[in-house]
Amino acid sequence: MATSKDSDLETGFDYKTPLQLFSEKKYVKICAPMVRYSKLPFRMLVRKYDCDLAFTPMIISNSFVRSIKARDSDFTTCKEDRPLIVQFAANNSQDFADAAEIVSPFADGVDLNCGCPQRWAMGEGYGACLISKPELVQDVVRQARNRVNQQHFTVSIKIRIHEDIRRTVDFCQKAEHAGASWVTVHGRTAKQRRQPVNQEAVRIIKDSVGIPVVSNGDIKQLDDCYTVYEKTHADGFMAANGLLENPAMFAGFRETPKECVKKWIDLSLSLGTSFQCFHHHLMFMLEKVMGRPERRIFNMLGSTSAVLAFLRDNYDL
Prior knowledge:
This protein has an 8-stranded parallel barrel, surrounded by 7 helices. α3 (40-47) packs antiparallel against α13 and α9 (165-178) packs parallel to α10 (199-208). The protein has helices spanning 8-11, 18-24, 40-47, 61-66, 68-74, 93-103, 119-123, 134-147, 165-178, 199-208, 222-232, 241-245, 258-270, 275-286, 292-300, 304-315; strands at 28-31, 53-55, 59-60, 84-89, 109-114, 154-160, 183-186, 213-216, 236-239. The chain is of the alpha/beta class. 47% of the residues lie in helices and 13% in strands.
């Protein structure tokens, strides 16, 4: 893993820290934490197409702290993988602070997942259930802040909203008071899935706190950033599915360009990506290019060599 600090003298790689990005850019373009997908090769790919900041997939903090095997499995980076935020699921301040301390030499900040709506996560005290525990979240943020004594290292939270926006505003204000660097707002409640994002809620939160607010949800094209900015004045926009389908989205491409597919092949093979991950990303990228019969064949391919042969024969890749 790379050494962490925020200057080119210390890492050999010059980049803007998250707080610099928020202070200098109209809005920051961010790759979301996606389970199984936002791993190192994909982060390196989207960074080639104007993605300003990238998150790791959500990592369970207690197993990460206790197991070297889990750390080696869940967290891989390199010096060019910056700026980087490591997202953790935690249900207590000790695990989160311990995890933050471990990754602090290799990342620019940590993020507490307060938004995952999956039943298993909430059953373990992780994710969206935390938006009903503001005092716990305050303690988690404070303990991580106290543990990592680095000027530019950030501690952020990613949340869903309550039906009563006043509760969400109060929650965010308490997190800010505890030292949160910024908050990412997925503008849906824990029960909502495909309903439109509540942009008004994002705007109200933005107007109610003094830290940056990132809007998450329904960002499928670069134009969506412009549109949502006019409604919310958010400091950043986080995309998940939009980037899976088109990793070049933030650079203004409407569909995944051929060169992007080539770069994914090169990156994933050079970094030792599992076949399943390699294949699934290509399925997302090429979904709008292939017809249904082609997709059926491509999705059934079972080896890297078969995938490469298919792309060579059908798309000159």
